[in-house]
Specification:
Blueprint: E1 9-12, E2 21-28, E3 32-35, E4 40-45, E5 55-60, E6 63-64, E7 68-71, E8 78-79, E9 81-85, E10 91-95, E11 101-102
Antiparallel strand pairs: 1-2, 1-7, 2-3, 3-6, 4-5, 7-8, 9-10, 10-11
GO cellular component, one term: ribosome
Organism: Candidatus Cyrtobacter comes
Pfam family, one: ribosomal_L24
Length: 103
């Protein structure tokens, strides 16, 4: 079971966007996550038919998941996540600070 999934609310712990929070939009193959409003980079583009002026385009870049931490909705602070096997045999994730089960 993966630690981060699409829709999780996370806090950036390291890097140029340290302290910002957002929602995971996408998990990339190489252990990176695209987070809404975090990790914006400038991409220079040549003039094309779609963008006739060209110029600088702001784009969301992936952030390595080691620099992310879940936000506990009860405390509002960064927390770790664990996995529990429920009585019906399914596994679910839970916040270690509050013990609240989610997804």
């Amino acid at each position: 079971m993966r630690k981060f999934k699409k829709g999780d609310k996370v806090l950036v712990r390291a890097g140029s966007s340290k302290g910002k929070s957002g929602v995971v939009l996408k998990i990339l193959r190489d252990d990176r996550a695209v987070v809404d409003g975090v990790g914006i980079v400038l991409k220079h583009s040549k003039p094309s038919r779609i963008n006739p002026e060209g110029g600088k385009i702001e784009k969301l870049a992936g952030i390595h998941i080691s620099n992310l931490s879940h936000i506990d909705p009860v405390t509002g602070k960064a927390t770790r996540v664990g996995v529990r096997i429920l009585e019906d045999g399914t596994s679910s994730r839970f916040y270690k600070k509050s013990g609240q089960i989610f997804s």
